[in-house]
Structure formats: structure tokens, C-alpha cells
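Customer escalation, tier 2.

The customer says the design service returned an amino acid string that "doesn't look like it belongs to this structure." They asked us to rerun it and document both sides in this ticket. The original C-alpha cells are below, unchanged.
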């Protein structure tokens, strides 16, 4: 079992091995289950096919996207996702 330390801001950081094993990406979501008051279980939430990535949404219907929405797209995250898949 791997040890994970909570930092000063109450955040936990996964090791590279766990990130690669579970294919964890920034903004991934998890369900938290609490068992017996001393056990925490994280379960990765799978994206549904209905839930689209922001870039895919723009490509699917470019005429319906506002300029404000375009400004909020993190191109670095999109590039990273393209390189890791």
C-alpha cells in the first residue's frame, strides 16, 4: 500500500505510478466513500458519452459558441490531453 501525505492546503498528490495505472488526468472526478470512519475509498467517475470535452463541443457546433466561452478554454490542458491519449 502506498502512502499519500496531505499538504498544508489539505490536498493530496498521487504518485506517477498511480497516475499512470489509473490514467488520472487533471480535472478528473472521483466519488468518495467513507467506510468505518477510518477508511476513505476514491472511485474514479467515468465520463459519459453525453458529457463532451469543451474542444469537442466547439468542433461539433462552432456557430453556437460564444467568444467568452472560447476565452476560458485551457489550451495547455487540451494539448496535454492530446499528447497523453
Amino acid at each position: 500500500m502506498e502512502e499519500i501525505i496531505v499538504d498544508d492546503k489539505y490536498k493530496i498528490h498521487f504518485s506517477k505510478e498511480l497516475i499512470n495505472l489509473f490514467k488520472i488526468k487533471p480535472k478528473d472526478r472521483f466519488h468518495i466513500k467513507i467506510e468505518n470512519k477510518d477508511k476513505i475509498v476514491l472511485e474514479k467517475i467515468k465520463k459519459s458519452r453525453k458529457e463532451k470535452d469543451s474542444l469537442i463541443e466547439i468542433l461539433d457546433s462552432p456557430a453556437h459558441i460564444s467568444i467568452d466561452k472560447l476565452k476560458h478554454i485551457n489550451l495547455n490542458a487540451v494539448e496535454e490531453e492530446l499528447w497523453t491519449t
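Tier 2 assessment: The sequence is consistent with the input. The chain has two domains: 1-46, 47-85. Residues 47-85 form one domain. Sent an explanation to the customer and offered a walkthrough call.
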